[in-house]
Amino acid sequence: MAEQDTFDLKIVNAVIVDGTGADRFTGDIGIKDGLITAVHRRGADGAVLDGTAAETIDAAGQVVTPGFVDIHTHYDGQATWDTLLDPSTSHGVTTVVSGNCGVGFAPVRPGAEEWLIGLMEGVEDIPGTALVEGMTWGWETFPEYLDVLEQHRFAADIGVQIAHGAVRAYAMGDRGARNEPATPEDIEAMAAIVKEGVEAGALGFSTSRTVAHRAMGGEPVPGTFATEDELFGLGRAMAAGGRAVFELAPTGSSGEDIVAPHAEVAWMKRLAEEIGMPVSFALLQVMAAPQLWRDLMSESMKALEAGIPLYPQVAGRPFGMLTGFTTRNAFSKRPTFQAVAARYAAGELDDAAFAAELAKPEVRTAILAEDDLPSDPSIPGDQVNLALQRLAGMMYPMAAVPDYEPTPERTVPAIAEARGQDVLAAMYDLMLEDDAQAMLTVPLFNYADGDHEAIREMLTHPASVFGLADGGAHCAMICDASQPTYLLTHWARDRARGEKLPLEFVIKKQTADTAALYGLGDRGVIEEGKRADLNVIDLDNLTLHRPRMVHDLPAGGGRMLQDATGYTATIVAGEVTRRNGADTGARPGRLIRGAR
């Protein structure tokens, strides 16, 4: 673009981190018709990019990055009623990829909608009542589902993968839902659906092989025990449909089912080699085998060195759950707590009154003394209270600005000992802080060593891609959709217990690299001709706040949100969608169909 041309938007005086991994530089960016049309690197004379603009953002002292591309979300249902796609868009994300882990809502037989909702609720902890009330259906096939999404406008672009669970149930009926073996005819029918889905624009195919993923009735996700014939048949069909990614939660990823993990990587490697498409699998450090991830990462590296596209998908911080009085907790099956919580949920008690009630000595004493009501082991999550009692030794309180790399003396038992309290009494009092809005974190994965060194190795490993943020999922227990912000605040700026990571690296890790995995070559870097998906960030003051429970889903469903301050602007296709942390109402985001 000529220097005197007119822009829709200019960003000037910025410290530009362009997503390629190259060193930052001072410069200006011109945007026209949703694209970056000028990237001006300041010379010795300090001259600013010429040309007028409808709006100019002065980014002096601030960092400008590509918009973040989050490849692991679960907005499949939420996208039919919610155009904001939060919590991801609160953290600089301008592109989301949904349909992960083998669960989704298309294809669907008429009348099977409720079953798919139960599957999603069980696996991803999205309130079924919110899905029932909020979802606007209107499709049967996967291409029809994409047509429905295409009618919506969002605060970020969204791409979707076709999920094994839905495909199996559609093609095989009850036999598929019950994980019965697929016949050659079944595989052929499923393959046709997968190929059709990718041809229509699915960015990939996803499956789950971990027994931790269960429907509300306790049944494993359809496809959990799929044979190699079925997996390879569907992988070949995906590749026949076009450029796409085969994504999975593998056996062993939950820590509950560590059975022949090397064999699991071996078939993934063979599949990636045969179909010539990326295979990406969740990889976490599990407590039961804390060094296993290194072996699997090494096997993946050998594959990449041989030209085989096998990519472990890793997280940027410990992976686990949050607990507090406003969500599931160790006392949630005790009668006195249930009575108080019911009044809170009904609106009879506001936050202050809820806290005051729980702080009453007679209420506290009763809750601590009571036995738990019986749990139903067939209902996923119904025994969380007992699990949280057992997990107190690896539970840490969260400050207003959370520390996700806490030291051992910050565990609940250590605090209890210092206070001369019983462990559960200390847990109760810690959750009672801040008007009973306080949260404790339980790092079940990626924290076996009590620090972030394993995470640092995972993030910096040449074979890894950044993911597992789970935006839209696990509403009552986590808010890992804030990880893009955490990469900046912790890894690039604040880490004190070990080596930090360069800002240029952590930006590339969640922009150019994640976009490249899914073939989204039109975004992820600041370059002329690319989409104008950008963040303007006050990095010095960027702050990630403690998660909080809100009840803003349909039917009053609750979910965790985690606020961030310091995002001056988030820009999607040249339009400012967030300004100083607030939604502007702009909805330039669209459905992505296929690779770019």
Automatic annotation (TrEMBL):
Q: Name one GO molecular function term.
A: hydrolase activity, acting on carbon-nitrogen (but not peptide) bonds, in cyclic amides
Q: Locate the Amidohydrolase domain: which residues?
A: 55-577
Gene Ontology annotations for the cellular component aspect, listed alphabetically: cytosol
InterPro entries cross-referenced by the UniProt entry: Amidohydro_3, Metal-dep_hydrolase_composite, Metal_Hydrolase, Metallo-dep_Hydrolases_sf
Instruction: Classify the source by domain of life.
Output: Bacteria
One Pfam entry for this protein is: Amidohydro_3
| Protein name (record) | Amidohydrolase family protein
Which species expresses this protein natively?
A: Yinghuangia soli
